[in-house]
Design a protein that fits this description.
The complex is a heterotrimer of chains A (about 375), B (about 70) and C (about 270). Chain A is α/β, with parallel strands linked by helices and about 375 residues long. Chain A has two domains: about 5-180, Rossmann fold; about 270-375, 3-Layer(aba) Sandwich (Rossmann fold), CATH 3.40.50. Chain A is built from 13 helices and 15 strands. In chain A, the strands form three sheets. Chain A has a seven-stranded mixed beta sheet, with helices on both faces. In chain A, strands 10-12-11-14-15 form a five-stranded mixed beta sheet, with helices on both faces. In chain A, strands 1-8 form a two-stranded antiparallel ribbon. The longest helix of chain A has 18 residues, at about 145-160. Chain A is globular and about 75 Å long. Chain B has about 70 residues and is an alpha+beta fold. Chain B has a single domain (about 5-65), classed as Alpha-Beta Plaits (2-Layer Sandwich). Chain B is about 15% helix and about 25% strand. Chain B contains two helices and four strands. Chain B has helices spanning about 20-25, 50-55; strands spanning about 5-10, 30-35, 40, 60-65. The radius of gyration of chain B is 12 Å and the shape is globular. Chain C has about 270 residues and is of the alpha/beta class. Chain C has one domain (about 1-270): Thiamin diphosphate (ThDP)-binding fold, Pyr/PP domains (Rossmann fold), CATH 3.40.50. Chain C is about 40% helix and about 20% strand. The radius of gyration of chain C is 19 Å and the shape is globular. The chains are: A alpha/beta (about 375), B alpha+beta (about 70), C alpha/beta (about 270). Chains in contact: A-C, B-C. The interface of B and C includes residues 12, 19, 61 and 63 of B.
């Protein structure tokens, strides 16, 4: 048997994807249901000279990966809802200081300690709005292990491309479930490396001056360019500034670099969307059940389709608006009280036809759940 | 080794905030604050070049320059 | 002036108040680094939030001005990322020991090589004079208008208990000792702590009727004594200064190299 075919948990698929992408520094703190990511990386990273550290809490983990990223490493941390809450201040710092890093949140039921071993998708809005102040984020997800692998690689690529933290929102079901994973050959998925400045020693280097293509070349700590990194609003050298022009310019840059590229960052899968009368919009493990409904009902003549979102933030609003035009019913399938539903309703021309099919009791939403809710919406009764 | 001989106190006047630490602890009372609350070298001839004013200045505003050996 | 080689002159005069001890700490730190002949490119200064943290912006090293209390956690990532760097982490007493207390004890426990400088002015200065974990019982602050009933940490005892392998205490009055402590701390292969009693004449001094900056430094002169001195036996209230601990234990990054060696050995065996 080829050793690139594995039967693994989703958390391991994430580990494989991260290593494939070049992860060489991980800091984390144990928390269910993400812990396997830390465990596997503590084993795997040093085998290739990478480094793993178990910090004293999630705050420290987030801070440590930012520090390591500044020395040129590809970095990641992994947690679940409560730990993700603790990371928010440092996440905002990474956004403000434009430090590439990847944060995995394997979602569990909340709020608070909630349901540590049960599934939920309740952190979608925390990913978007957890850090204070205006900001833009990239948050990705996936519903199966092959996609978890690929989207993890993508997270590292986007983090480097846009010099920003990227959040991976997995969930307890995909994280713990085992299925087949085929690890691609080296080079099969393109990787984005750290863009380093070509400015030579002795010439003024501007860590916060975007090039024409919007990218900002970095210089590793310990190198020939000594600059300042601060969470305060700062000028192109990284020094604090409260000049109104500088403040406005930086905030616009931080928002625009992500939001203006929303369609480039949009990742999704489509199943029978073209002629769908009923369009399901789903993501993560909920999308597995949604896909089952589509595959099950199509042979019976029901024109049901699925738009599976992998990019949740920036919300792919143009895509969603376009795909929602023709269908008579749009049903958002998710395991929360309608966090993506809100974004869909805001984006579409006709929000009254958008409904929520959800489950919030710690159980995976089943195809039957979705089917029953759809029947009620259609006026057919359960 | 010969005792160091003072060449001058270089004062960065615009950095001096007039806290008076240098004046208070100068063992020979060489320094004073002027009417603008900036450090002033009142009695340079008494300076023993101990550099404590330089080392204790929170504003990095004082440097004690000594004559180079053989250059005097 | 050689000191000017190490500062970002365009930001001077600095933002600290007249007589602030933090400027003296910066002054001594520059002299220590100059005496050691370290290259500016191999020094990373990581700071948190507060008056103390602004030191990083003034010095011409790789500088990382982070969030409140977390400087040591950021520094841990920097150090593990590139262990050959010299990491210096100046912190205030609130930054290091209130919001950052957990990171402090754990960095000490790991014995990761970096120099933590605790600029202890016994107050939150940047926010206007609230009591800190080092203000001490009976002091006054804007949030202790009647009397502070919180007891203070003893930074030296805390550091030793947490496992720091170099622990020193000095004051802004004792500038030569301070420079010497910094030199030894920076050279130490492990987690080093230097507590510097650093006056805040604006808030702690004013609230507690300590007089001018110079008066507060005179207080350090008169109320401290070298470790184990005869004076201490006669007057146990005196605060001891000097190097309390200096010992060799495996340094974290070097120890991790052993982990890598073991992992690689295991990887080869399949």
């Amino acid at each position: 048997m080829k050793d690139n075919i594995k039967f693994v948990q989703g958390n391991e698929a994430c580990v494989e994807g991260a290593l494939y992408a070049g992860l060489d520094f991980f800091a984390g703190y144990p928390i269910t249901p993400s812990t396997e990511i830390a465990e596997h990386l503590s084993y795997r990273l040093p085998q290739s000279g990478g480094k793993f550290i178990q910090m004293e809490d999630e705050i420290a983990s987030m801070c440590a990966i930012i520090g390591a990223s500044l020395t040129g490493h590809k970095v990641m941390t992994a947690t679940s809802g409560p730990g993700f809450s603790l990371m928010q201040e440092a996440l905002g710092y990474a956004i403000m200081t434009e430090i590439p890093c990847v944060i995995v949140d394997v979602q569990r039921g909340g709020p608070s300690t909630g349901l540590p071993t049960s599934v939920s998708q309740g952190d979608v809005n925390q990913a978007r709005w957890g850090a204070h102040g205006d900001h833009a984020v990239i948050a990705l997800t996936a519903s199966n292990h092959q996609d978890i692998f690929a989207i993890t690689v993508e997270a590292f690529n986007l983090a480097e491309t846009y010099r920003t933290p990227v959040i991976l929102l997995f969930d307890e079901v995909t994280g713990h479930m085992r299925e087949r994973l085929v690890v691609p050959e080296e080079g099969e998925i393109p990787l984005v490396g750290r863009l380093r400045t070509s400015v030579p020693e002795g010439v003024d280097y501007h860590p916060y001056l975007p090039r024409e293509d919007g990218r900002l070349p970095m210089s590793d700590f310990g190198g020939v360019h000594r600059y300042n990194v601060t969470g305060l609003f700062h000028d192109m050298w990284g020094f604090p500034s409260n000049n109104p022009g500088v403040v406005q310019g930086l905030l616009r840059h931080l928002m625009d670099k992500i939001n203006n590229n929303a369609h480039q960052i949009a990742r999704y899968n489509e199943y029978f969307v073209e002629d769908a009368q009923v369009l399901l919009i789903s993501y993560g493990s909920a999308a597995r059940s949604a896909l089952h409904v589509v595959q099950n009902r199509r042979p019976r003549g029901e024109r049901v389709g699925l738009l599976e979102l992998q990019t949740l933030w920036p919300f792919p609003v143009d895509l969603v608006r376009e795909r929602c035009r023709a269908p008579e019913i749009v049903m958002v399938v998710e395991m929360n009280m309608g966090q993506v539903l809100q974004a869909v309703k805001l984006g579409v021309d006709d929000p009254e036809k958008v409904f929520l099919a959800n489950r919030i009791d710690g159980s995976l939403i089943t195809p039957t759940d979705i089917r029953n809710i759809l029947r009620v919406i259609q006026g057919k009764g359960v | 080794m010969a005792k160091p001989k003072l060449k001058e106190h270089q004062i960065q006047t615009e950095w001096c905030k007039g806290c008076g630490i240098c004046v208070a602890f100068c063992p020979k009372s060489v320094l004073e604050l002027d009417s603008q609350d900036k450090v002033r070298v009142a009695r340079p001839e008494d300076c023993i070049c101990c550099r404590l004013c330089e080392l204790r200045c929170p504003d990095i505003a004082i440097e004690v320059i000594v004559e180079q050996e053989g250059s005097g | 002036m050689p000191v000017k080689d190490y500062i970002r002159e365009r930001f001077f005069p600095h933002l600290w108040c007249p007589g602030c001890g933090h400027g003296i700490v910066m002054n001594a730190l520059i002299r220590a680094i100059e005496a050691l002949g370290l290259s500016k490119n191999e020094i990373v200064m990581v700071s948190g939030i507060g008056c103390s943290s602004r030191i990083s912006g003034y010095l011409d090293f790789h500088t990382l001005h982070t969030i409140h209390g977390r400087a040591l956690a950021f520094a841990t990532g920097v150090k593990m990322g590139l262990p050959e760097l010299n990491i210096i982490v100046p912190m205030g007493d609130g930054d290091a020991l209130a919001i950052g207390g957990n990171h402090f004890i754990h960095a000490a426990r790991r014995n990761i090589e970096m120099t933590a400088i605790i600029m202890n002015n016994r107050i939150y200065g940047m926010t206007g004079g609230q009591y800190s974990p080092l203000s001490g019982y009976g002091t006054l602050a804007t949030t202790a208008p009647y009397m502070n009933i919180d007891h203070a940490f003893d930074v030296v005892q805390l550091s030793i208990a947490a496992g720091a392998t170099f622990v020193a205490r000095t004051t802004t009055y004792h500038v030569q000792q301070m420079t010497d402590c910094f030199k030894k701390a920076i050279l130490h292969e492990g987690f080093s702590v230097v507590e510097v009693l650093s006056q805040c004449p604006t808030y702690f001094g004013r609230k507690n009727k300590m007089g001018s900056a110079a008066d507060m430094m005179a207080f350090y002169r008169d109320h401290t004594t070298p470790i184990g001195s005869k004076k201490k036996k006669e007057n146990p209230d005196l605060i001891e200064r000097g190097i309390f601990v200096q010992k060799d234990l495996p340094e974290y990054c070097r120890a991790y190299d052993t982990v890598i060696e073991r992992a690689k050995g295991k990887g080869q065996k399949g």
